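Continuing the series of single-chain predictions for the mutant panel. This is the parent chain; the variants come on the following pages.
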Amino acid sequence: MSSPMPHQLSAPPFPPLSPPSSAKRTVFDNGVEAELGAIADRKCVPRDDHELLAASTQALRDALYVPKGVVVSVNKGTVVLDGRTSFYYERAAAECAVRFLDGVRAVENHILVEPPALAHDVHMTIAAALIRTAADEAAHIAVHAVGGTVILQGAVHSRAERDTAERAAWNVEGVRSVIDNLIVGV
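Parent structure:
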């Protein structure tokens, strides 16, 4: 035996959607008709450069993934970001932190992304390069990395081994300069 369906279910569950009152019917070149509603632009509160600089500095301080080395300046509503970061997401986070502040007309992101050069990575690359010529030479080379600068110290048997070690250091990602203090012929 079946039970009768309630009368409520036969009515549409939701009223039909009506276009916004400011909607206009538009016909495009390809014959498609659409009702386009007017969307109000985001209201922008004008700020002078000093207020915008303070707000931008605070936004960068509050942003989770923005490193402390990012410097901000403001010129006629344009926020300029400078500095160095280790990763691209930090650069993008800095731009996101200031882009939607009231009064921002544009953002110029001059932040450089420089991955950190690790002394261990440089040492392993040098060891791999020298393994072809002299396996023991890599053990006599000390590698120090400070920022993007790599310092090579120690002794090698020949000028070719010295050049190989320097070339290997240059091939590691993030290395900007190599200081070669290797001694040849000891």
